Amino acid sequence: MEPASAPPPFEIVETPAGRLYRLPPRQLGGLRVLAVPPLVVAVAVAAVLVNYYLTRAAKGPLDEWAWATFIASGIGWTRAGYTLVSLAAAIWCGRSEIEVTEGGAVWAADRVGWLRVHVGKLRPGAARKLVLSEFVPARDATGQPLTTGPVPLWSLTVETDRGGKVWLALAHPREVLAALADELANRLSIATPAPHNPDTGEPLPVATGAPVPVVVEEPEVPNRDVLEQPADSRVVLERHPDGVTVTVPPPGVWRASGGLLIVGGIFSLVGGGIVVNLLWLLWANPGLIGGEPVGVFFLLVGLALILAAVHYGRKRAVLAVVGDRLLTFETGPLGSRRREFGRAGLLDIACGPSNVSVNNKPLPQLQIVPAHNNQRVGMLTGRDEDELKWIATVLRQALGIPDVPPERREPVAGTPATRGR
To answer: Is there a contact between 353 and 345 (Cβ–Cβ < 8 Å)?
Structure first.
């Protein structure tokens, strides 16, 4: 006996007009906050209309024009308010419903009980392509795709014979919409012109149209491999029988931390000036107690910033692959740091955005991603992006790490699968 096929991830209801597909409620998580604005607008405008009526009624009886204006506004806003409240409810806990009639017409809406928001409709035979596309990507704070956590949300649309787009379902998991698209592909067969008998002119029996094709619009994955070292890079690459060594020279104090150096100099000058001035006043008036602590604080902060700028500007990094291990060394005027990673404990090495921003743009850095906790270890922040991508490519190739991002890799048997987009 053949194994029974798995039930679809949605409800199918046979109706007098055709068939209704009822999707599971959305799981929007934090995006539910989007339900607040339409609800606030509905309540606020209703309050304004009520206030207008009370204010006008307090001045005396309403004439015919005032009544007509108020009634027309009330009727119009009642309809608009219903739509806004329905939209808020649909965002908060709604579910998509798509009905396909026997004739091939399609009607799509979001529903919560008696509240309903019309999404789209399609005339019979107008469908030319079903399109699955990403609606809300799941990313972390640095813009990287998540390998665990929230499920990315997708949308299902129809391209019509006139080149238009009709929405069917929004913000659902990909597997739900993929199953729905497969179901609709056969129901929405492409209409073909009715053939006629060339002798009599009478219509001939029409064969069933071809299923509507389903297209998945995958987000583009940029090629992250840079095989050639940038021409202006001063990084030294040494290859040896059991691995490679990448030596990254210091970037220079001004290039790496010019802004930090300027701020530190300003704090030092202000703090030093305050301290010198107050010490001179104290020498002239021994009993006077001034603001020396404030000046000392500014001076110490300035010196600390200058020392940090010198440390980052003179820091030298070495990354070495020895066998199946990655060793990193960072050495600067204020100390050094050594890390060691085993190949089995590494998920990825790549260039990614750091938590440091300049002009609202995150600075790139080399990121080493352990396999056990996905907590990225950042290095070489602020260096040239192509140079960082080249270093990451060299290290991945030396360690045998796939060039495909983790969220795009096929799960390995015996290991937990990562959630891809």
So the answer is: no
Q: Which amino acid is at 382?
A: G
Q: Residue 292: which of 306, 303, 281, 305 has the closest Cα?
A: 281
The one-character DSSP state at 188 is: T
What gap in Å lies between CA 320 and CA 399, rounded to an integer?
Answer: 10
**pLDDT tens across 407-418, in order?**
666 554 444 433
Q: What is the CA radius of gyration of the chain?
A: 33
Give CA–CA dist 275/292, Å, rounded: 6
Q: What is the pLDDT of residue 146?
A: 46
Dist. CA 321–CA 391, nearest whole Å: 12
User: Which helix (DSSP H) or strand (DSSP E) does residue 353 occupy?
Assistant: strand 346-358
Using the CB atoms, write b or e for 267-297: b if 16+ within 10 Å.
bbebbbebbeebeeeeeeeeeeeeeeeebee
Q: How many whole angstroms separate alpha carbon 340 and alpha carbon 22?
A: 52
- State how far the Cα of 75 lies from the Cα of 81, in Å rounded to an integer: 10
| Per-residue confidence band for 420, with pLDDT thresholds at 50, 70 and 90 | very low
The more confident residue out of 362 and 318 is: 318
Tell which residue, 351, 340, 345, 263, has the closest CA to residue 307. 263
**Model confidence pLDDT, tens digit, residues 191-221:** 444 555 566 666 555 445 667 888 888 665 5
Contact 171, 26 (CB under 8 A): yes
Helix (H) or strand (E) holding 297: helix 292-313
If you count DSSP H runs as helices and E runs as strands, how many of each does the chain have, helices first?
Answer: 6, 17
Residues 6 or more apart whose Cβ sits within 8 Å of residue 207: 192
Instruction: Write out the two tokens for 28.
Output: 């929007």
> What pLDDT score was predicted for residue 247?
92
- The answer to pTM > 0.70 is no
**Phi/psi of residue 392, nearest 5 degrees:** -60, -40
What 8-state DSSP symbol labels residue 145? Answer: B
Q: Quickly state the pLDDT bin for 396 (edges 50, 70, 90).
A: very high
